[in-house]
Amino acid sequence: MTTALVKDAPSTTPPAPAPADGRRRARRRGRLVALLFVLPALLLLGALVVYPVLFSVGRSFYDASGTRFVGGDNYAEIFRDPATLKAIRNTVIWVVVAPVLLTGLGLVLAVLVEKVRWATAFKLLMFLPMAVSFLAAGIVFRLAYDEDPDKGVLNAAVVSVHDVFEGASPYPTVRARDGQGLHKDEDGSYRTEAAVSPGRTVALPLVGLPAKDLPDDAAPAYGAAAREAGPDELRGTVYLDFVPGGGGKQGEVDREESGLPGMTVEAVRDGKTVASTDTASDGSFRFTGLDPGSYTLRLPAANFAAPYDGVSWLGPTLVTPAIIGAYLWIWTGFAMVLIGAGLSTLPREALEAARMDGANEWQIFRRITVPLLAPVLTVVFVTLVINVMKVFDLVYIIAPGPVQEDANVLATQMWLVSFGGGNNQGLGSALGVLLLLLVVPAMIFNVRRFRRSQ
């Protein structure tokens, strides 16, 4: 009886918790721990990204002082301001040109590097510019693009090549002595005012050349000027009408005065050049075999041409392509390494099968390699588009002040309008919002590509 009562008494032991409740509590605990770890990053993200974006959006609806609400006037001003429109045009040029060139260069180099013995060393050299700050790279290229051939390495090379095929004149500063029988034409050449004929000796006085800049082979002109011309020849002397230390008589060849060698002299009759010669070391020249009659002696403008100074890389026309060139130097290694990583994962069986079927390397590259690399190429291209839209440092540093407006992109225009003298942070905020709206679609596209690849 007692035993039965004991058996029928209710048990005081609590029931074991259901497994589902334990899993839910564990998940909640895991979420709380994850939130605690993520919270600092979220706070930083909110302070450095979310809040500035929201503040810029709100600020874009106010005037320069930030006190008066102007609605969409700042956005309308973007498309009325010529400087901002030029910045938008330059941004479009950057987006169209730079990512295409970088992706193409990266693809070509990645394919070629696979056939190079020292591929790793080559990749390292190509990737090194990524370690250089944009500030340092901008200073380097600002010097490289300098128009002075003595400073700018690019113009030094251009001038050297030019001078090989077309020599520079040694007399760019020389001019005729006023009132001594030479007249300057509109094309920069000089001609004798009075007609001359065979049997005469003519002196052509020039000035404007420092004695220290005389050619090394220049000889005194006095002896040449004293020679008499034969009856069938026209003789003359081109000389520097200047005596070091002063003295001498203008228009006459003195004993201390030097001839100008290598000067081209032409005999002109009825508007046509009938003979041409170059002066000797003492400045003398002679024409023989001329028909009797009157002639005009001319010193062509090429004798006085200024030396070739190279290309104005940082002028209004070429400043944007020049800065894009600097950007290519920095980012080509990045594109090559990423595309090379994708290239290393390609199935070699497909490439070998194509070779077995008789395809050449160009066909393999065009019909197999590029299609298989399409996902990688797309990611690289879109990443570069995002980066190009935000380019600021190179444009601001490389472009000289007088052509800064011709090189501006949206990022530099936004800074100049807000802080670089414009002091209109309402318009600057509107430009920042516009830049954000342009970048966000590319970022969304890239994120989706990453998710699909995973």
UniProtKB/TrEMBL annotation:
<feature type="domain" description="ABC transmembrane type-1">
    <location>
        <begin position="88"/>
        <end position="446"/>
    </location>
</feature>
<keyword id="KW-1003">Cell membrane</keyword>
<comment type="similarity">
    <text>Belongs to the binding-protein-dependent transport system permease family.</text>
</comment>
<keyword id="KW-0472">Membrane</keyword>
<feature type="transmembrane region" description="Helical">
    <location>
        <begin position="32"/>
        <end position="54"/>
    </location>
</feature>
<dbReference type="GO" id="GO:0055085">
    <property type="term" value="P:transmembrane transport"/>
</dbReference>
<keyword id="KW-0812">Transmembrane</keyword>
<feature type="transmembrane region" description="Helical">
    <location>
        <begin position="426"/>
        <end position="447"/>
    </location>
</feature>
<dbReference type="Pfam" id="PF13620">
    <property type="entry name" value="CarboxypepD_reg"/>
</dbReference>
<feature type="region of interest" description="Disordered">
    <location>
        <begin position="1"/>
        <end position="24"/>
    </location>
</feature>
<feature type="transmembrane region" description="Helical">
    <location>
        <begin position="322"/>
        <end position="343"/>
    </location>
</feature>
<dbReference type="Pfam" id="PF00528">
    <property type="entry name" value="BPD_transp_1"/>
</dbReference>
<keyword id="KW-1133">Transmembrane helix</keyword>
<dbReference type="InterPro" id="IPR000515">
    <property type="entry name" value="MetI-like"/>
</dbReference>
<keyword id="KW-0813">Transport</keyword>
<protein>
    <submittedName>
        <fullName>ABC transporter permease</fullName>
    </submittedName>
</protein>
<dbReference type="InterPro" id="IPR050809">
    <property type="entry name" value="UgpAE/MalFG_permease"/>
</dbReference>
<feature type="transmembrane region" description="Helical">
    <location>
        <begin position="124"/>
        <end position="145"/>
    </location>
</feature>
<dbReference type="GO" id="GO:0005886">
    <property type="term" value="C:plasma membrane"/>
</dbReference>
<dbReference type="InterPro" id="IPR035906">
    <property type="entry name" value="MetI-like_sf"/>
</dbReference>
<feature type="transmembrane region" description="Helical">
    <location>
        <begin position="364"/>
        <end position="386"/>
    </location>
</feature>
<feature type="transmembrane region" description="Helical">
    <location>
        <begin position="92"/>
        <end position="112"/>
    </location>
</feature>
